[in-house]
Sequence to fold (119 residues):
Amino acid sequence: MLDKSPDALADLYTVDAVHEFPFSSPGFPSGFEGREAVRAGYRAAWGASPVQVEEVRRIAAYETADPGVLVAEHVVVGRLPAEATTFTVPGLLILHVRDGLITRVRDYMDGLGVARARR
Fold:
């Protein structure tokens, strides 16, 4: 995410992975089905966005009763090159992992924060 590489991100997913955005932002899809859809979706989103991600702060990670499921809280810190201020977008990920690859993500992020950052 820091270098906005859709290839590096997509390579973390299984071929048939699902990435869902239950609280989708305006103009952003509700999810991607399959590794190549993740790659294409993030290529389009990150390619169209002037936002520069400066930091991803790990707030907390939680173990679950299922060893293949992880819950992670984070905050993305970014800025728009034309502005002097930074912004933050909090989020929560529920990750399902098998054999070291992501099979499903439920990606809850602050949709209003994302919309403000994309202006």
